[in-house]
UniProtKB/TrEMBL annotation:
GO molecular function (one): zinc ion binding
Name of the protein described by the UniProt record: Zinc finger protein 235
Keyword Transmembrane helix: no
Organism classification: Eukaryota, Metazoa, Ecdysozoa, Arthropoda, Hexapoda
GO cellular component, one term: nucleus
GO process annotations (BP): developmental process
């Protein structure tokens, strides 16, 4: 494994991935009037940072997984998601023998074998295997990025992308590898780790 460079807080010894994250983290120690999240108790140096953090607890994703930070609009989707934590992969691809937790994941995997991408952008012709891929892509054409990070002013077109980005500032690493225990700020980092290391 390659070691990631970390920046340590001299006050509480917490390790953070980025220098800017350490700077923002230290503001929490310096500011006596912390803005506390009433949902999880985390403190923030600015009210705007607390507002941004609240996206993690957003009301339009009320069903939270108790094993990871994932949140969902419907309880049925949460129930299906929880199957991914069991380690049981019941659905096998007849072509390559790769196994999946969910039947839907196998279905999308098979589409990839045949190069089928049923969700097509009417503006540019780019196509996707999943409907949400097309939905996110459509924001590129509109240019609308309505969700802004209060830490660095970076803007996002999708609320969940902003919520994950916030972890890079707070130093939180909620995505943990169930095999070796390494933790990551964003889901794609964990996926890349599993794809290359395990």
């Amino acid at each position: 494994h390659t070691r990631e460079r970390t920046f340590e807080c001299s006050i509480c010894k917490k390790k953070l991935l980025h220098h800017r994250s350490l700077r923002d983290h230290k503001l929490m120690h310096a500011n006596a009037r912390l803005h506390k999240c009433t949902t999880c108790g985390k403190g923030f140096p600015r009210s705007s940072s607390l507002r941004t953090h609240m996206i993690v607890h957003t009301a339009d994703l009320p069903f939270a997984c108790d094993l990871c930070p994932a949140r969902f609009k419907r309880s049925s989707v949460l129930k299906t998601h929880k199957l991914t934590h069991t380690g049981v992969r019941r659905f096998e691809c007849d072509i390559c023998k790769h196994r999946f937790h969910l039947k839907g994941a196998l279905k999308h995997h098979i589409l990839a074998h045949y190069g089928i991408r049923p969700y097509k952008c009417e503006d540019c012709g780019k196509s996707y295997r999943r409907s949400w891929g097309l939905k996110v892509h459509r924001y590129r054409h509109t240019g609308i990025k309505q969700f802004e990070c209060d830490f660095c002013k970076l803007r996002f077109s999708v609320k969940t992308k902003l919520a994950n980005h916030i972890y890079t500032h707070t130093g939180e690493k909620p995505y943990k590898c169930d095999i070796c225990g390494r933790q990551y700020c964003e889901r794609y980092q964990l996926k890349a780790h599993k794809d290359t290391r395990h």
